[in-house]
Amino acid sequence: QVQLVQSGAEVKKPGSSVKVSCKASGGTFSSSPVAWVRLAPGQGLEWMGGHIPVVGSTNYAQKFQDRLTITADESATTAYMELSRLRSDDTAIYYCARGCSGGACYRQWGQGTLITVSS
Amino acid sequence: AFQLTQSPSSLSASVGDRITITCRASQGISNALAWYQQKPGKSPQLLIHDASILESGVPSRFSGSGSGTDFTLSISSLQPEDFATYYCQQFDNYPLIFGGGTKVEIK
Prior knowledge:
The complex is a heterodimer.
Chain A: E1 3-6, E2 10-12, E3 18-25, E4 34-39, E5 45-52, E6 57-60, E7 68-72, E8 78-83, E9 92-99, E10 106-109, E11 113-117
Parallel strand pairs in A: 2-11
Antiparallel strand pairs in A: 1-3, 3-8, 4-5, 4-9, 5-6, 7-8, 9-10, 9-11
Chain B: E1 4-7, E2 10-13, E3 19-25, E4 33-38, E5 45-49, E6 53-54, E7 62-67, E8 70-75, E9 85-90, E10 102-106
Parallel strand pairs in B: 2-10
Antiparallel strand pairs in B: 1-3, 3-8, 4-5, 4-9, 5-6, 7-8, 9-10
């Protein structure tokens, strides 16, 4: 069973960047998409973007297009989400998720990483 | 822009009740839809994929149906552990948006 473990909580200043990691144990992201989803206070789940390492394909939600970068390492066991030009409304729990093979779903989720943006 | 409208946004129900949550897509998405449960402080958990396939290990009181633009998640007999927020998500086209969520509370 694949498990996803994310890096720890961070406090960042407005205008700075954050990079969150997501390590897969018991499997890889090579053929399954890895996505990043966030949950802001009082809001619902928001899909930010996804990456398929085996084909090198990445898609981003339009609102994050110019400040979000999703990557994976060469072994496709660790994925990264880097968000730049942080604002206070980027304060949220950020989750990585691994796509289902041949199915419409995300089956495995990381434990979440709280990113707080505050001056 | 493509929209995924989930209703109701919240509901109150009692243990043993049957409840139904709907998710409507602004354009047809075949059966490319998943349902998740999320409890406070926890990660989302997959319940249903491909609109109607029950994820392994999920109790059979959960069921999903629909195709095209209209989908439903039903819980046949609500249990205390089912009080949570439920989300639908479409996988037909990017961005892979979520519905707004339905918070199920104890009456």
